[in-house]
Request: fold
Amino acid sequence: MENFKPGDIVLVSLNLKIGKWIEYFMKLARKKRGLIVPKGRVASHAGMLVSMWGELCIAEAWADGISITPFKDVYDVKFNRIKVITPKKPYSTEEQDKVSRAAAQSMNDKVKYDFFGLMYQIRYVLSGGKKWDGPKGDRAEHRLYCTEAVAMWANKVRPKTFDMEYAANPLDIELNRYYKVIYDGSDIE
Reply:
């Protein structure tokens, strides 16, 4: 955990029903893109590490909105179930502060969860990641699902890190060309 810093992204496979549903579509997305489909678990959720209250926290989009919680309180005992990716070009202190402020702003604005975005994801996955029918731009920032939030916060620091932040899913986050894996104690492939 001492190597983790604000701007790193945590990928996890949730044991919730919706997590299993998302995993199914992420495996389908891998197949549609010609990638190897693992037999084990795949990421179904993402959060971004931020600095709040003088400690490392995780910002996540959940059904009840954006939450920011001390990282150790949520994932410390689950280190064997997460994958952490970091920007290949490390964030400066200023960029770490900027991503932390972006996540806090989403929480303070009481941004709601984007349930409909998950429905648009089905069509996006079935198109092989080529066609997005859902909201874009400013319209997409008022409701966010977890990976969309992570991509939006990254783009606020470094624009165009994610080409289509409004369509980002766990596979898009994991395979982003600007990130590399720094921790993989996961049971996700």
Observations:
- The CA atoms of residues 58 and 153 lie 13 Å apart.
- The chain has one domain: 9-184.
